[in-house]
Design a protein that fits this description.
mainly alpha; 13 helices; 2% strand; globular; binds Phenylacetyl coenzyme A
Length: 316
């Protein structure tokens, strides 16, 4: 057993990908199932805040873009569920964990989308934070997860750009539009900063996940990169981030930023955010209402299988 563990770590250190049939420590498997399934759930629940605006997009162009983005998120969820299945957990079990509240999904999707400018702010900030975290996951040590992330990141990059472009457009508009953009940024900034998870010294999983190269950067490292980039990008919009302590630190060559409200974060993670109950009940209803589609698809697949068997028998 000891030998297996040493050989496993040597593979990780040599940047050799771990594949589904390779030996792996049970804790590595469980950590990946936890992270990948939570990531998949985040993509699926993440469709809901934006889905709210598809029928109210201000133009056909914006509607088509938003529709494509939300469909991409469904796709991301499916690649990620497939990657998690290679570790020996079934999709039904993962859905069950989500629907019973056992599995987490990203805190960010428990906030409401109040105006059209929220679609821009989500694209710019939420997808911006997501890419910051996910580009390094293209080099994560587990092969199926790393490969899924390549396509996810390409699409997330389009999501981030469309959000920034929408805000750029509106921030050159009427005083009401400008105010709407600033209000959306004010509401989405801190939840986006929190998305990276607890500070490193409060993060129980980071040390081992870094050693196994599941995570390639810590929560705080990624958060700092996100703040540094966003603090510059907001200037292009002619708007501000809602943090009076945000200030360039010449010595650190990074932006300093204000204190994060961790109470709020843990409340949202514990299920007490503004929209947790609504998100979960919408998700469960979608699952229940889709039962007839799943049954029909299963019956159709079964019929095709039987027809193929009959054809083979006739030809034999
Ligand atoms: N929300 O020890 P750590 C997206 C939990 S996808 C809720 O630091 P870890 C696309 C954590 O699970 C966004 N819970 O944990 C999109 C753990 O609890 P557990 C999702 C959180 O795993 C955009 C506990 O706190 N992205 O946005 C959060 O090492 C727009 C202790 O934390 C991913 O999932 C949180 N924010 O690091 C879609 C990326 N943060 O499980 C639609 C992959 C932490 O032990 C629209 N995941 N917790 O009970 C990761 O990189 C990691 O899992 C972290 C957390 C960095 C999220």
């Amino acid at each position: 057993m000891m030998d297996n563990n040493i050989a496993f770590q040597q593979k990780i250190d040599a940047e050799i990908k771990i594949e589904p049939k390779d030996w792996m420590p049970e804790k590595y498997r469980q950590t990946l199932i936890r992270q990948i399934s939570q990531h998949a759930h985040s993509e699926i629940v993440g469709m809901l805040p934006e889905g709210n605006w598809i029928s109210r997009a201000p133009s056909l162009k914006r509607k088509a873009i938003l529709l494509a983005k939300v469909q991409d998120e469904a796709g991301h969820g499916l690649y990620l569920y497939s990657a998690a299945e290679t570790l020996g957990i079934s999709r039904d079990e993962m859905y069950n964990q989500l629907h019973t509240g056992k599995a987490k999904y990203s805190s960010i999707f428990n906030y409401p989308t109040l105006t059209w400018a929220d679609m821009g702010a989500i694209g710019w900030l939420v997808d911006g934070a997501a890419i910051m975290n996910q580009v390094p996951l293209c080099r994560t040590s587990y092969g199926p997860y790393a490969r899924a992330m390549v396509r996810v990141c390409k699409e997330e990059s389009f999501h981030q750009r469309q959000g920034f472009e929408a805000l750029l457009h509106m921030s050159k508009g009427t005083p009401e539009q400008i105010a709407m953009c600033q209000d959306a940024i004010n509401r989405w900034w801190w939840p986006s900063v929190m998305m990276f998870g607890p500070n490193d010294d409060e993060s129980p999983n980071t040390k081992q996940s870094m050693a196994w190269k599941i995570k390639r950067f810590t929560n705080d490292e990624l958060r700092q990169k996100f703040v540094d980039i966003s603090a510059e990008q907001v200037k292009l919009l002619g708007l501000t981030l809602p943090d009076p302590d945000l200030k360039w630190n010449e010595e650190r060559q990074h932006y300093d930023f204000g204190a994060i409200n961790w109470d709020e974060f843990w409340q949202v993670v514990a299920g007490n955010g503004p929209c947790n109950k609504q998100r979960l009940s919408t998700r469960k209803k979608a699952w229940e209402n889709g039962e007839w589609v799943r049954n029909a698809a299963t019956a159709h697949a079964e019929k095709r299988k039987q027809r193929a068997v009959q054809k083979e028998l006739v030809e034999a």
